[in-house]
Design a protein that fits this description.
The protein has helices at about 1-5, 30-35, 60-75, 95, 110-125, 145-150, 150-165, 200-215, 270-290, and strands at about 45-50, 55-60, 75-80, 105, 130-140, 170-180, 185-195, 220, 225-230, 235-240, 245, 245-255. The chain has about 300 residues and is of the alpha/beta class. The strands form three sheets. Strands 5, 6, 7, 8, 9 and 12 form a six-stranded mixed sheet that branches. Helix 5 packs parallel to helix 7 (about 150-165).
């Protein structure tokens, strides 16, 4: 809150007015002086102008983003959304990173989604995934007011992306804010129920996907070997709302460590979001250089 005051933000401001709400009367300069201040990390709100076109990377709450999106798109800017507002199509760089680049707004889902949906997609690339469930555990210290205000949106948006991007017939998402001290590194658990592929095929697909994510999130890794459990006709698994299941249950245990450049290394949940947005922004910038237009 002290830092917000120094930057001319009201401590209770949701970010929508960007520096104009409670700035001193002689300093109502809005966001432009923040963008020009090199002491401020270029995380949260950044604008890039290239050949009279621009893209904006926006963080905050899902509620506030609806206002940001309307204002930015009205000004001709393409938006990379780091909130679970899900106004634009879900985007996971390693899965569908190039599919939505002509959209006016691309949504980076959630930190848990960026960490786990590549794993669901890895399984669905080689098997039919009937159900996928993810549990994202992050340190309470790395969950700010924006994250806490977005818990409901987190679960809905992540579950939807598990299905639409991950390829699962049904998805579920859970987030845990862990108050442990010292702060824990982000941990994620992914469960899938699938058929049509054996354990070796699934394991190889998962390991290949981990390497792809590591290209832009070096601290992303398997915590231990992929675990499997088989269900046959003699021990069918009952899935609420979907009936009985035979096939393979896969459990993938992940750890996401941040780079520690600005945020603490335990804040892998924050690093993976900004890294995914950066990877998407680089693809968007390339399209801008090629002179391609936004169509939606």
């Amino acid at each position: 809150m002290d830092r917000r005051g120094q930057l001319a933000f009201h401590a209770r401001n949701d970010g929508r007015n960007l520096g104009k709400v409670a700035a001193p009367d002689d300093d109502r300069r809005g966001p432009e002086h923040l963008l020009a201040d090199r002491r401020i990390p270029r995380i949260g709100f950044r604008r890039r102008v290239e050949q009279r076109r621009s893209a904006a990377v926006v963080g905050g709450t899902a509620h506030a983003h609806k206002v940001h999106d309307a204002a930015l798109r009205a000004d001709g800017k393409q938006v990379v959304d780091l909130t679970p507002a899900a106004i634009g199509p879900y985007t996971i760089p390693t899965v569908n990173g190039e599919d939505n680049l002509d959209a006016g707004n691309v949504n980076m889902v959630t930190c848990g989604g960026q960490a786990t949906i590549p794993m669901v997609a890895a399984v669905s690339q080689v098997a039919t995934v009937h159900y996928a469930e993810i549990v994202a555990s992050v340190s309470s210290r790395s969950a700010g007011p924006g994250t806490r205000a977005n818990i409901d949106e987190f679960t809905r948006t992540t579950a939807g992306a598990i299905e639409k991007v991950g390829g699962a017939a049904q998805g579920k998402a859970i987030i845990i804010l862990n108050p442990a001290e010292p702060p824990m590194i982000m941990r994620d658990t992914v469960f899938t129920l699938s058929e049509g592929a054996n354990e070796d095929t699934i394991r190889a697909s998962v390991e290949a996907m981990v390497k792809k994510v590591q290209a832009y999130v070096p601290g992303y890794r398997l915590k231990q070997e992929v675990q499997f459990e088989r269900f046959g006709d003699n021990n069918k698994l009952k899935i609420p709302g979907r009936g009985e299941f035979t096939g393979i249950k896969t459990m993938i245990l992940l750890e996401v460590e941040g780079a520690g450049d600005y945020l603490p290394s335990y804040s892998g949940n924050l690093d993976i979001m900004t890294a995914a947005a950066k990877a998407t922004g680089e693809l968007l910038a390339e399209r801008i250089r090629e002179g391609k237009k936004v169509t939606a």
